[in-house]
Specification:
- The protein is mostly helical.
- The protein has one domain (6-193).
- Helices cover 64% and strands 0% of the residues.
- It has helices spanning 6-16, 20-43, 48-64, 80-88, 93-101, 113-133, 145-153, 163-173, 177-190, 192-195.
- The radius of gyration is 16 Å and the shape is globular.
C-alpha cells in the first residue's frame, strides 16, 4: 500500500507547478487548512498517530488543490485534470473530492468538514497574503482582523478575490468571520518564514 504523505504531495506540486506565487499560495492554503484539520481532530478526540494522520490529510488537500492550475488554468480543465491525475496515482477519494468541491463550477457539493475547510481557506489565504504584502514591512505579523475586514470592503483591493467565498466559508465552518480570519492569520504566522511573509524588521 502506497503511503500518501505530505512529502509525496509536495513532490507532485513541484513537478507540476513552476509559478513561485502559486507554490506560495499552495503552502498558505495548506497552512490554513491544516489548522482546521488539527482543530477537528481535537474535537473528534483523536490523539497521537490518528490525530497526525487526520491532520496530514487536510495539509495534503490544501497543498494539492491547485497543483494542475499552472498547466491547465481553464475552467474546463482545472481542477478536473488534476483530479484525474491524482486518481491515477491512487490518492484517496476523500482528498480528490475535496479538491473538486473547491471549484464552484465542478458540481461537487461541499459536504465534509475537509471540503468546507478547503473552500473556506482558499480565497482567505490569498487575501491575507495580499494584505501582508501591501504593508511597508511585508509582514503577516502586522495584519490584523479589523484591517482585513476594512480591505474586504475595498473593492479595488485584491480584486480577484471573491469576498463572498470568504464569508460563505466561515458560515460553512459554523464560525464568525472574525474568528475565521484570526485562525488563518495564526496559521500563516506560524509559517511566515516559509511563505516569505516574515517581513523586514522595521
Amino acid at each position: 500500500m502506497h503511503s500518501y504523505t505530505r512529502d509525496r504531495a509536495w513532490e507532485v506540486l513541484k513537478e507540476w507547478t513552476e509559478s513561485a506565487s502559486l507554490i506560495k499560495h499552495a503552502l498558505a492554503v495548506e497552512a490554513c487548512t491544516e489548522f482546521y484539520g488539527a482543530r477537528e481532530a481535537e474535537r473528534l478526540g483523536l490523539s497521537g498517530d490518528e490525530s497526525a494522520a487526520f491532520t496530514e490529510k487536510y495539509a495534503i488537500t490544501g497543498l494539492l488543490h491547485d497543483f494542475d492550475y499552472d498547466r491547465h488554468p481553464s475552467l474546463e480543465e482545472h481542477p478536473f485534470v488534476g483530479e484525474k491525475v491524482l486518481a491515477e496515482q491512487g490518492w484517496p477519494e476523500e482528498i480528490r473530492r475535496a479538491i473538486l468541491s473547491h471549484a464552484d463550477y465542478s458540481g461537487v457539493p461541499r459536504e465534509t468538514h475537509l471540503e468546507r475547510a478547503l473552500f473556506a481557506c482558499d480565497e482567505l489565504a490569498g487575501f491575507l497574503t495580499a494584505c501582508a504584502l501591501v504593508k511597508p514591512s511585508k509582514s503577516i505579523f502586522e495584519v490584523e482582523v479589523t484591517g482585513v475586514k476594512k480591505k474586504m470592503k475595498d473593492k479595488a483591493f485584491a480584486r480577484a478575490v471573491k469576498r463572498e467565498d470568504m464569508t460563505q466559508g466561515a458560515e460553512l465552518l459554523g464560525i464568525p468571520i472574525d474568528d475565521h480570519i484570526n485562525n488563518c492569520l495564526t496559521a500563516l504566522q506560524a509559517r511566515a518564514e516559509e511563505l516569505g511573509l516574515k517581513g523586514t524588521a522595521a
